[in-house]
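Title: Prediction job returns without error message
Component: structure pipeline
Severity: low
Priority: P3
Assignee: unassigned

Description:
Job completed but the reporter wants confirmation the result is attached to the right record. Sequence as submitted:
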Amino acid sequence: MPYSPLWFTIRSPIVSDEQRPPRVTPRYAADDPRLAAGAVRPAWLKVPAPRGEGYTELKGLVRAQRLHTVCESARCPNIGECWQSRTATFLILGNTCTRRCAFCAVESGQPTEHDLDEPRRVAEAVAALQLKYAVITSVTRDDLPDGGAAIFADTIRRVRTAVPGCKVEVLIPDFQGDDDALAAVVAAHSDVLNHNVETVPRLYSLVRPQADYPRSLALLARAKALDPATVTKSGVMLGLGEADDEIDATLRDLREAGVEIVTIGQYLRPSTGHLPVQRYPTPEDFAAFADTARALGFTHVESAPLVRSSYHAREQAESPASTPPGEMGIDFGTLPPAEAGG
């Protein structure tokens, strides 16, 4: 899941709260030993500054509808390309997460939003953009009894009503293992249900201390059992300290849970208060992991440094073929300042 920003936008000194770029909340104090120096970012790993008429138009629509996007909140390196092509991942249930995952740029704290009108506004935005494929994700809301499952389900149904024929992908949290919450989302019949395991089980206590690896695998298997027609999907990041054989084992676990689409991308440090990057695998390394995934039987694999779970989401869902590994991640442009020093 569900990563991006208004890194390059020059703003006037006086702006409203709705206009302000997402705040990056450091996960650790500056002297925390977990922030010891990591690997040096390779010169080829760069992303272009977001620009273009489509980018500007979509940004204006998001502001007008008072919506959040994970593209901004999670500081996605692909925001320029995706927004220019008029695709975006909508972030529902507010912009503040109840968890503090050590890799994530989304603001953490006690949420104040529970907007029951949000599904209508998301559907209107999808209709205004005339999208054929909509991706919907959320912050984790452990403060809500159902984890926000009802809002997810309502959003799926409203998008389908507003834009008949539009396919819908959801990237969901683990709902703390609540089967009823998961069933409510599955019953709304998204075309793709995504839940990212993010990293290997050994690193969960460091990277995702409030999550649980077996619980995430069980959620993915349960979703497939509830509705075999729903395509299931998950993703992992490289560069957090995992070993190659651990990634291979995680891919096997995902296939055994019935997952059909997998994304593999590079972890990029959102700030100096987040975990440092331990390694930068080359495009050839990502190609090798893609080969492993294809051999395991995944129907679609996206594996490259700048791959994120929502990147090429429509293509992932509609094509059984894998995007050639290494196609992304060797680009030119200016690095986003908030991710520098990773």
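Comment from assignee: result matches the submitted record. The first strand starts at residue 68 and ends at 69.
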